[in-house]
Design goal:
By secondary structure, this protein is mainly α. The protein has six helices and no strands.
């Protein structure tokens, strides 16, 4: 496999940079969203091979129906790939994907930091209650009952 990679990429000078460029792009996407490598591995090493093996198996059947089905699937896959290319190049698809990855990463970081942030907020709230001498919640409920009875007296009049 490595020998074939050298044979394909090394003789042509501009092709030597393709693997490095691809690795840099994958690294950038991984930096944006830590879940990207998992999605990439599942798509490239599980879904895509199964899809291609399935299409190959459909074409290896000796029935015309399977050949038509395989041809239809190949055309549909080509159209989906063409639309994805169009969407990425001309409809700001790259920016949408990048912003989605930023949002997913922000959500992940927020959820991982939430317990620490809540402990900090609760500690600051306890300090504020001690500083201002606010009554406890139990005393508030008694005060609400007194106000409720006073309101009842005025509504009867």
């Amino acid at each position: 496999f490595n020998v074939f990679g050298v044979i394909i990429f090394y003789p042509i000078p501009f092709m030597r940079g393709l693997p490095v460029y691809g690795a840099r792009q994958l690294g950038k996407l991984t930096r944006l969203w830590r879940g990207f490598p998992v999605v990439y591995i599942i798509c490239m090493f599980i879904l895509l091979p199964f899809l291609l093996l399935g299409i190959s198996a459909i074409f290896n059947k000796d029935e015309k129906g399977f050949t038509v089905l395989g041809s239809f699937l190949v055309i549909m896959i080509f159209l989906v790939c063409a639309y994805i290319f169009y969407w990425c190049q001309f409809r700001n698809g790259k920016e949408a994907c990048i912003s989605c990855m930023h949002q997913k990463e922000r959500r992940r970081v927020t959820m991982s930091n939430l317990p620490d942030d809540m402990d900090y907020v609760l500690a600051k709230l306890a300090q504020l209650i001690d500083h201002t001498n606010l009554p406890d919640d139990d005393e508030d409920e008694e005060g609400d009952d007194l106000l409720g009875s006073v309101d009842d007296e005025y509504t009867d009049v």
